[in-house]
Amino acid sequence: AQSVAQPEDQVNVAEGNPLTVKCTYSVSGNPYLFWYVQYPNRGLQFLLKYITGDNLVKGSYGFEAEFNKSQTSFHLKKPSALVSDSALYFCAVRAPNTGRRALTFGSGTRLQVQP
Amino acid sequence: EAGVTQFPSHSVIEKGQTVTLRCDPISGHDNLYWYRRVMGKEIKFLLHFVKESKQDESGMPNNRFLAERTGGTYSTLKVQPAELEDSGVYFCASSQESQVLYGYTFGSGTRLTVV
After folding, report:
1. Which residues on chain A are in Cβ contact (under 8 Å) with B59?
2. Is A96 helix (H, G, I), strand (E, B) or coil?
3. CB-CB under 8 Å, A34 with B103
4. Taking the CB of the first residue and of the last residue of chain B, which one, N or C, has fewer CB atoms within 10 A?
5. Which of B5, B43, B45, B53 to mutate to test the interface with A (most CBs of A within 10 A)?
6. pLDDT by residue (tens digit) across B64-90?
7. Does the N-terminal peptide bond of residue A7 adopt cis geometry, omega within 30 degrees of 0?
């Protein structure tokens, strides 16, 4: 069975500093990996994905994530945090070649960017 | 284009009552998914429709939950009778068949509180 771990319930960072939100996964085969963000009173918004190819993927709002197969990680990063980045972030994985489209999500990490 | 629409946005019901959640996917999206997040935990998959057919309902917790997708358009998720542990946020998502690798578009969710 596949699983996703987001070890930090909350990450605090000062505006202008780099941020990292951690994600590790467990899945059979090569994974499809996703990051979603949820702003208050909004739905989940797609940020970025890794399907294949370059291990460093770039997404919306200046976010990027690095796929590390040996460490089974897909950490979300941004070089300079903004107060407006404060939100709830979810990592998700999907196992290809299973015929299932279901995403397995982590429990979420709340990012708080202080001015 | 209009996004995925869910209503109601909030629902408070008593234990033992019935509640029906509705999801209108993006027009033309054959794939429709239901997920839910219970009290700060991970977002869990419930089921997946392709048009009007249930493709994967492995995440449905028990027979108190009934999902339908009339004519392959909007979908409803009925909980009858509701229990306290059903409280949480229910998300709907949709995707085109040709773009399943690009992530899904989620609605804003329905926050269900069972008292």
Report:
1. 102
2. coil
3. yes
4. N
5. B43
6. 999 999 888 999 999 999 999 999 999
7. no
